Amino acid sequence: MDPLPASLAQAETPAAVIDLDRMQHNISRMQQRMDALGVAFRPHAKTSKCIPVVQAQIAAGARGITVSTLKEAEHFFAAGIADILYAVGMVPGKLAQALALRRQGCDLKILCDSVASAEAIVACGAAHGEAFEVWIEIDSDGHRSGIRADEPALLQVARVLHEGGARLGGVMTHAGSSYDLDTPAALAAMAEQERAACVLAAQRLRAAGLPCPVVSVGSTPTALSASQLDGVTEVRAGVYVFFDLVMRNIGVCREQDIALSVLTTVIGHQPEKGWAIVDAGWMAMSRDRGTQKQKQDFGYGQVCDAAGQVLEGYTLVGANQEHGILARSGEPDRDIAARFPLGTVLRILPNHACATGAQFPAYRACRADGTTERWERVHGW
Amino acid sequence: MDPLPASLAQAETPAAVIDLDRMQHNISRMQQRMDALGVAFRPHAKTSKCIPVVQAQIAAGARGITVSTLKEAEHFFAAGIADILYAVGMVPGKLAQALALRRQGCDLKILCDSVASAEAIVACGAAHGEAFEVWIEIDSDGHRSGIRADEPALLQVARVLHEGGARLGGVMTHAGSSYDLDTPAALAAMAEQERAACVLAAQRLRAAGLPCPVVSVGSTPTALSASQLDGVTEVRAGVYVFFDLVMRNIGVCREQDIALSVLTTVIGHQPEKGWAIVDAGWMAMSRDRGTQKQKQDFGYGQVCDAAGQVLEGYTLVGANQEHGILARSGEPDRDIAARFPLGTVLRILPNHACATGAQFPAYRACRADGTTERWERVHGW
After folding, report:
1. pLDDT in tens, A253-270
2. Which end of chain A is more exposed for a tag (fewer CB within 10 A), N or C?
3. Which ipTM value was assigned to this complex?
4. Do B93 and A11 touch (CB under 8 A)?
5. Which of A4, A12, A141, A269 should we substitute to test contact with B (largest number of B Cβ atoms within 10 Å)?
6. In contact, A65 and A82? CB cutoff 8 Å
7. pLDDT above 90 (res B140)
């Protein structure tokens, strides 16, 4: 059988492409900022779920990582990374898995924000002779989980842990509300609110004679907006490694900083409507419509040419499972079939890099010289 | 090390659970309907992407399957299923993969809706001595892809294929707009519109002396709403196998028919807000908010107890990557920590079964006797 032309055979789409130059730039920018602010940096691996990406973050100066599932912890520990924060509240049913990791030598830190959880942790620790390292989650913005820094529950939980034989490792918070903001002033104020709440929690613990070595804060928007981090020992951030259109709308990156895109092929047209149909539907882009309520709605993603240059005004305006609908804003582009003929390869910048990456078993990591490598991701729980 | 209690150790969450009784009921209902309407049934494997699910559909009487990616085609062909429709428009870059499948004995049918695509198919066929079986995609509702049944392009495309040595297998359409409807009358009208358009296209081909053995229509809502299918030879549908909250709102199933749910654990509370935090965030549920614009918005999903009984009024009102926010509609449930204590296991019915299933590497298939089995899914492209 004759080979098909290399250019066609190579275009396996959809694919999740990492632009390694952009990624490296994003990693350096964040690490330099953290160095300047005098804090350690613990990137959140949930964005990439990918060993070479995390290794690049560590090579740049990161100390330890954050994970969102115990499967990620197992995956990165097997790759030689031992200092891991599991940043989701611990429940009794997951203690056996956490214990197994610690027994294998993983320096796993777990999270707690209630007396019930603290009691389960110390009971398991006592039963198995294990001093779990526990960080207390602080609610700095009413966004989701955690104990408010001024609540009596903070000291209660800390005492249950401390007196029960757990190791109080510190306090941590995540100002997730920073995702709702889009001005430098509001972002700086949220970064200060996040810092102040976490530092206050640490002060209350220390004033009560309890240990609190670590004060950990962070989200990508606040990490890039804080003007000072007095009292903070480390910062966590995830999506900055790739960035995305949500972060562009928040104002902490430009479109040309976005390192993750979905490579796609034009598979058809509806010229009267000005549509090109592409093979990146929601299965590739994810259903994330994070820019829908922001200052600029990019639909299911911003269209770029195959080299990654933004094609202004062209977005994915709709998505089915394996079909994306590409159109121009404003008047329909009736020349769309000539502009993007059948088989044209394009790239789509995603709303939310964490969600889009998760749709793929692996990335295609692209170097500036055009060579690529397959980089696997962790999938599932 | 002492074992943890079995009930806790077993609760590995989040997990995608299939209720096999419900699934079998959904499969029988659809197959009986198709038998009564006198048409063959070709289920869409894109919903489950899972061999045992598809085998159950075939055991009930399905003839052949539909897939949304060539990777699915390879996966199901390797499991012994040869009659496969790849229901996404063919592009030059994917012909080598399609050709390889046919050379291995797969009875793969491919799709075409433009002269450009037809020309690429016949050129590849001629170069490799392969008579591809091609179905022409018909646009019956302006939803996405396809040629309208009355367009001159229909005969043009058919002639390029037929004269170029491809095998004209038939016409197919998918009335995706049926997802926007929610009354029996509107659904029946859309089913008739879908049928009439596809039959008209077949009649035009036959009148022009071109072969058109297959007339294939379908979507879950229209398949369950058609009153007659004269001239149609087969129907396709996907999500009916599990159903979901979107289908419930459209009116083609009840909540108690939904066979897919996400098993989740309560990991914390914010009692003042009436929130329980669970370990099913959008990574588990997907970002699909399909019920957002329907008659009842279920947020990120309807909460059920561990046995699958609906807990009226409780939904996931928010989702982060690994955190779901569970709340009651109306007044905050300030007793939520007592109602759903830390560690409580619940099930969440999804907005969209295709999207939620795709977040998991495998299902936990649950029999009525409580035994479960791990059923793998295809992931990626």
Report:
1. 999 999 999 999 999 999
2. N
3. 0.96
4. yes
5. A4
6. no
7. yes
